[in-house]
Amino acid sequence: MSIEDGKQYNNYQYQAPPKIANPAPLGLCGFALTTFVLSIANTGSANVSSPSITLGLALFYGGLAQLLAGMWEFKTGNTFGATAFSSYGGFWLSFACIIIPGFGVPGSFANIEAFEHAVGIYLLAWTIFTFLMFIASFRTNAGIMVLFLLLDLTFLLLTIGKFTPAGPVGDVNIATKIGGILGIITALVAWYNALAGLLADSGIKLPNYDLKKSD
């Protein structure tokens, strides 16, 4: 027998648990902002010449905040959102470990070429995972599907960039540069999806075609 709201049983007043807020905008914003900053570095911008500027974001916004959003998505029962936010939160935390000098990741390889190849394998694995998420996004909405398509292409180009022989010191190869440009576009799409989620609670609906099958 279920307990109804406000009904008293044996002098105990049952109260329904509070409604959990939508964690998706937080996860999307954390992903978007961190991706935006790193992607500018990947384009070879002279003003953001090192990915180290992304470190704080990768740890606390794209990493921790997005991971927390994934945990809250489990609470809402959204398996897709929980998997996506938790996984990409983990991605940013692992990326931070690669670029934090104290972890000594680059120095553990024989040379820079071996390190770049290993990072290429790391990015290839995320390319494969993102493709699986892209397929799963067919049952979400158009904005999320486009986001994962662009993200998968971004990972693919960055992977190719790591497997491509390096040019002059400080130069960014064409695959990485295009990947950076796509990453910026991906971040903008993620922000759009986040804004759609933020405005939904106010009754404002941004254009975003629902891909779920109608009952």
Strand content: under 5%
| Rg (CA only) | 20 Å
Q: What's the count of strands? A: 2
Helical region count? 6
Strand order of the largest sheet: 1-2
Structural class computed from helices and strand pairing? mainly alpha
H/E order of the elements?
EEHHHHHH
In whole angstroms, the N-to-C terminal distance is 28 Å
Give the mean pLDDT.
Answer: 89
Transmembrane segments: 20-41, 53-72, 92-112, 119-136, 142-160, 172-192
Protein name: 1116_t:CDS:1
Keywords: Membrane, Transmembrane, Transmembrane helix
Subcellular location: Membrane
Commentary on this structure:
It is a single chain. With 215 residues, the protein is mainly alpha-helical. The protein has one domain (22-200). 63% of the residues lie in helices and 2% in strands. The protein has a two-stranded antiparallel sheet. Strand 1 and strand 2 (12-13) form a beta hairpin. Helix 1 (24-42) runs parallel beside helix 3 and helix 2 (55-76) packs antiparallel against helix 3 (79-99). It is globular. The two termini are 28 Å apart. The model has no long low-confidence stretch (mean pLDDT 89).
